[in-house]
Amino acid sequence: MKYYFGINMTSQEYLPYYQGKAQSIIVVSNEGIRVEFPAMHLRGYLTSSGIRGQFCLQTRDNKFLSLDKIA
């Protein structure tokens, strides 16, 4: 299944996830579905200003497959 969603998070807001104090992140897809996945998958998209953009999360049987930035 594919979930499309946007994130606009400052680097300060992401800090607890980066430090491992929080393990998973919950987003609401463009279709209104709440989706939870391991926050470590966002690390590659972190910049000094934070994480911003549109993403596509792909799962199979409720298991993480991939996370791609699409815009």
What's this entry about, in short?
It contains 1 helix and 5 strands, in the order βαββββ.
Descriptive report:
The longest helix is centred in the N-terminal third of the chain and has 8 residues. The model has no long low-confidence stretch (mean pLDDT 96). The strands form 2 sheets. The protein has a 3-stranded antiparallel β-sheet. Strands 2-3 form a two-stranded antiparallel sheet. The protein is mainly β and 71 residues long. Strand 2 and strand 3 form a beta hairpin. It has 1 helix and 5 strands; from the N terminus they run E-H-E-E-E-E. It has one domain.
**Which range best describes the helical content: under 10%, 10-25%, 25-40%, 40-55%, 55-70% or over 70%?**
10-25%
Strand arrangement across the biggest beta sheet: 1-4-5
> Measured on Cα atoms, how large is the radius of gyration?
12 Å
Measure the end-to-end span. Answer: 19 Å
Please state the overall shape, judged from the principal axes of the Cα atoms. Answer: globular
SSE arrangement, N to C? EHEEEE
Beta-strand content bin: over 45%
Largest sheet: 3 strands, antiparallel
Which class do the helix and strand fractions yield? mainly beta
Number of helices: 1
* Count of strand segments: 5
What are the segments in which pLDDT stays under 50 over at least 5 consecutive residues?
none
| Residue-averaged pLDDT | 96
Record keyword descriptors for this entry.
71 residues, mainly beta, 1 helix, 49% strand
Draw up the topology in text:
Layout: E1 2-9, H1 11-18, E2 24-28, E3 34-38, E4 51-60, E5 63-69
